[in-house]
Structure formats: structure tokens, C-alpha cells
Input
Amino acid sequence: MTLSERAKRIRAVALDIDGVLTDGRIGYGNGAGEIKFFDVKDGLGIKLLQRSGIKVGILSGRSSQANRTRIAELGLDFAIEGSHDKGSALEELAAQLGGETSEILFVGDDLVDLPAMRRAGVAIAVGDATAEARQAADLATQRPGGRGAVREAAEWLLREQGKWDDLVTHYREKL
Output
């Protein structure tokens, strides 16, 4: 099956957080919490996926309040944090969604993402992913993690599924 054919079967997108939705840096201030930066274009890409009927959520090895704040703000459809076996977590997610891993697109950037990337229907590595993640991926974004890579992946998928033009028209008609 071609990549385009596999893309048409995607019903859900699972994203790593650190290095995909963020640039991978974690900051600590005087308070107890951590600081992460998220790209608003990635956020709109996620909302576009959801608007087109695709479920979107995260599959992260770490758990943090910063993650949960962004998850809530975006209204993500699912969130699996603290997963140290992302391959098994992807299989559990597919079962929860009533489908198969072949219907999930996974975006990752590092070694811990390889098991999920190998099981996903489509695997995308962000532009600054490790060589191993890029090798395991079906394609890689030009943009780095935390700087528009998720938006780029979302646009690619929406174009492959023939949904992009209708979404753009929706925004043009609002003007």
C-alpha cells in the first residue's frame, strides 16, 4: 500500500510532546513548575485536523502540568502521559478508539518514539529528529519540533485526504 493510500486511512493523530510540540527544551524558574513553549501554528494545525473529523492527542513519556495545560487549552481528544513503552501505548490507544494502529499517524523525534513509529499507519519525524527517528519515518517535516512541524504534518495529511481546500474555504468565507 502506498503512503498516500495509508494516509487516507488515518482517523487519529498521536503526537509526542517534548521535541515535537515543543523544541525539546524544558525551563525551570523560581517556582515549582516547568516552562515550555508551544507554537500557535501547531495549535491551529491540530484544530484543523479536529475540524476535519480526525481525533488528535498526545502520547508522551513525560508527565507535567505544562503538558496538561496545553492539552486542555487545545481540547485534545486523548492524552497518554508517562508512557515508557510508546509502542504498547499506541496499540492501547487504537483499541480505545475502536480501530487499528494502521489508522493512526504518529509524529515523533527521538529513540523513545521508535516503537510507536514502527507500529503507526504513518510515521512522521520532525525536521530536527534523530537520524534513527528519521530513518523509521515515512516522511520528515522541513520544520523542526516546536516550530511548526506539527502544522506541516497536519497540512500534509489534510491535503492527502482531500480536506485541505474545504478548510481553507471555511476561513476565507469568514472574512
